[in-house]
Amino acid sequence: MLIITIKQGKEKSLLAGEPWIYASAIDKVDGKPNEKMKAGGTAIVQSSSTKFLARAAYNSKSQIRARVWTFDEGEPVDHALIKRRVKAALARSAAAAKKARPDQVVKLVNAEADQLPGLLVEQYGGKEGYLICEFQAAGADAWKVPIVQALIAETGCRNVYERADELVRKGEGLAFVEGALAGDEPPDEVPVSENGVKFALDLKTGERYKFR
User: Fold this and answer.
1) What is the CATH code for 3-70?
2) Most buried of the four, 28, 69, 83, 154, by CB within 10 Å?
3) Which keywords does this Swiss-Prot/TrEMBL entry list (predicted)?
4) The domain at 79-209 falls in which architecture?
């Protein structure tokens, strides 16, 4: 298990609920070399006096060295936590998803705001449409399979596509990957209506085009 020790005086932001831990706040990282190199591995975060502060996803290649999963010492980071977080995020966005027309894009999961650091999920076309996921941090990327499984189980939507921002993933030291994670890929263009304006959207890239 990785152990991140925070510099004395730098733990204040964590105690206030800040979910990001920058390289400049870390005194040392203890653990096996292979654990330190594993992007997104879970680490215990402690103060300079060895007091438990959090469990976080560690990434040695990012300036944001760790992103907090939980501040609760009794809450392990496991499949059950991922399932709970996805279910809770979808419950918060359920009203918007229910009201959305088939030609609207709805945000279902919003990263740290939903305690799922680096994970963005949008839906188009309801249950029969597509879930578009972006894994913008190593922790979310490491839990990709259970995240997708939970999304499918909770929404009933069988088509899941991974969209990638090359610059963001490069900054995290992650490979640029995109493609279908389950079911079918979305078409090159879909019609979208937003605030009364119609346009064509490439769900795979997020690019918008003049409606034809």
Assistant:
1) 2.30.130.10
2) 69
3) Cytoplasm, Methyltransferase, RNA-binding, rRNA processing, S-adenosyl-L-methionine, Transferase
4) 2-Layer Sandwich (3.30)
